[in-house]
Each structure stands twice: as structure tokens, then as C-alpha cells.
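User: quick one, sequence for these C-alpha cells?
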């Protein structure tokens, strides 16, 4: 079992997570982690502890809000000619395919499409190439 404060408790950028499991697996994970990353700050650890001790009411409320937004956004995107968006199984990110717009007004990949949206519509998306899908963009 794993968890992360960044998504669960809206502590984005803090990059604090945890894992629970058999001792031999956790020992191996700890060894790997200690050689690949630096340690989490004491401030982020204390904040995450308070978040976990606070119960899950805010987590449930946030989950419901994200589900409501997803229920609106996926059909709304699919109503736009050229967008194709599958409903994600468990994420608040959507990853619509936008390649139908490539070749129009200078767009030829997800980066140029994201730049176009930002410059012309003031809408920020993340180019899909960052996630291995250059035909898509990520929206949260």
C-alpha cells in the first residue's frame, strides 16, 4: 500500500509519500529511495502527519468535487469537434486527444497546441509529450 501527501492532502510540490508492506519489501524500497532522492524536510513531514491525523473528511470532500468536475469536463470536451477524451478510471487528470487540431494555425504537436491555447485562449494545459502521448494534452 502506498500513499502520497501531494495528491491526497493537496500538498502539491512537497513530494512526500509513504509505503506499507512486508518488511523485506520495505527494506528494499528504503535502500533504493535513500540512493535516488534526498530526504523529505522536517516541515513537510510534520505537515503530512497533521494531515493524516486530521481524518479523511477533507479527502472525501475533495474526491467528490474532483468527481463532479470530471463528470462535467469529459462530456464537455467530447462535445468539441476534434477532441476525443476517455473518462479516467481514477484520476482527476484528463488526457484528451487533440491531434485533429495539428496542422492548423501552426500547431504540429502537443507542445505547440498547448502554447496556442495559452497564448490565444489563456487556457493552460500540459503537453502530452511529457507523458509519452504527443497526440494529447493533460488537463487537471
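Assistant:
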Amino acid at each position: 500500500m502506498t500513499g502520497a501527501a501531494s495528491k491526497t492532502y493537496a500538498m502539491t510540490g512537497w513530494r512526500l509519500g509513504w509505503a506499507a508492506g512486508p518488511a523485506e519489501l520495505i527494506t528494499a524500497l528504503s535502500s533504493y529511495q535513500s540512493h535516488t532522492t534526498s530526504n523529505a524536510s522536517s516541515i513537510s513531514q510534520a505537515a503530512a502527519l497533521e494531515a493524516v491525523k486530521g481524518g479523511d473528511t477533507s479527502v472525501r470532500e475533495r474526491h467528490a468535487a474532483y468527481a463532479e468536475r470530471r463528470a462535467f469536463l469529459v462530456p464537455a470536451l467530447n462535445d468539441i469537434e476534434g477532441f476525443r477524451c476517455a473518462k479516467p478510471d481514477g484520476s482527476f487528470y484528463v488526457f484528451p486527444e487533440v491531434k485533429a487540431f495539428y496542422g492548423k494555425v501552426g500547431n504540429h504537436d502537443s507542445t505547440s497546441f498547448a502554447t496556442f491555447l495559452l497564448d490565444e485562449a489563456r487556457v493552460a494545459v500540459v503537453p502530452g509529450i511529457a507523458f509519452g502521448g504527443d497526440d494529447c494534452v493533460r488537463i487537471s
